[in-house]
Design a protein that fits this description.
There is one protein chain. Strands 1, 2, 3, 4, 5, 6, 7, 8 and 9 form a nine-stranded antiparallel β-sheet that branches. 25% of the residues lie in helices and 23% in strands. Strand 8 and strand 9 form a beta hairpin. The radius of gyration is 41 Å and the shape is globular. The protein contains six helices and nine strands; from the N terminus they run αααααβββββαββββ. It is an alpha+beta fold.
């Protein structure tokens, strides 16, 4: 009797064990498939903000334009250009980039010519030239950039500043004047309107003088051609000429 009970208990426990395994397998086999909503949420999501960041980054990259072969002194002349309704000031011009040394850096009168009413500052650009700025005590009026090289150093004057060293050709418009010189003259004088996009027009004279001792150049920048012939700056602008072909004094006119 006892053995039968033991046998029955053993069979019963074995049945329970087999039933448990069978039930587990059944659960695994009948596990429901994920719904469409659940399947969608398991996919990687690209947010709108990520797309916006990537688009903005691409736009910034597209805006970066590296200029090939800019003028040698483009950083200087670019800083001299005036936005609409803007004026030069002594402080801003004394902060012109890439000027090696100012002497003086604050507007000063010519101690050798007390009768000269103009004030000026001067800054060196390299061993061959520099930039001088002239005006009243209150504000600058005109800027000159000059250079020179002796024949003993280089008879071709290769280090002398040329117009293309200062300005981009597409920003210059030649202005015809009765004070122009002949193209083959050793002394060359030309006039231009200079205007950068989004800036005021400025006016320029460009002079190159090939003499026996060497070659020199002089470029003037002002808001009007009239400033170049203002008597207040006659001691500073000794290179510019108001002469006709017969070397008679004339009043320079410009076809703007």
């Amino acid at each position: 009797m006892l053995s039968n009970r033991l046998f029955s208990a053993a069979v019963f426990m074995g049945f329970i064990a087999l039933s448990g395994c069978s039930d587990k397998a059944a659960v695994e086999e009948t596990k429901p498939e994920p719904t469409a909503k659940e399947a969608v949420t398991t996919e990687p999501v690209v947010t709108a903000s990520t797309d916006a960041v990537e688009t903005e980054k691409s736009a910034e990259d597209a805006e970066v334009v590296v200029e090939e072969n800019p003028p040698r002194f483009a950083s200087i002349t670019d800083s001299l250009a005036l936005k609409p309704n803007a004026e030069w000031s002594w402080d801003t011009l004394a902060s012109t980039p890439d000027v090696q040394k100012w002497d003086p850096k604050t507007p000063t009168k010519n101690e050798y010519l007390p009768e000269d009413p103009s004030y000026s500052i001067w800054g060196g650009l390299d061993e061959h030239g520099g930039m001088a700025i002239y005006g009243t005590k209150a504000k600058p009026v005109l800027i000159t950039i000059g250079s020179g090289q002796g024949v003993m150093e280089d008879e071709t004057g290769s280090a002398v500043y040329k117009t293309e060293d200062l300005f981009r050709a597409n920003e210059l418009t030649p202005v015809k004047s009765n004070c122009d010189t002949e193209e083959d003259d050793l002394f060359s004088q030309r006039f231009y309107k200079w205007q950068k996009t989004g800036h005021q027009p400025l006016y320029i004279y460009a002079i190159t003088d090939q003499a026996n001792a060497g070659t020199s150049s002089d470029v003037g920048i002002a808001k009007s051609f009239d400033e170049f012939f203002n008597p207040d700056y006659s001691n500073a602008l000794t290179n510019i000429r108001a002469l006709n072909a017969e070397y008679n004094d004339i009043t320079c006119t410009f076809e703007l």
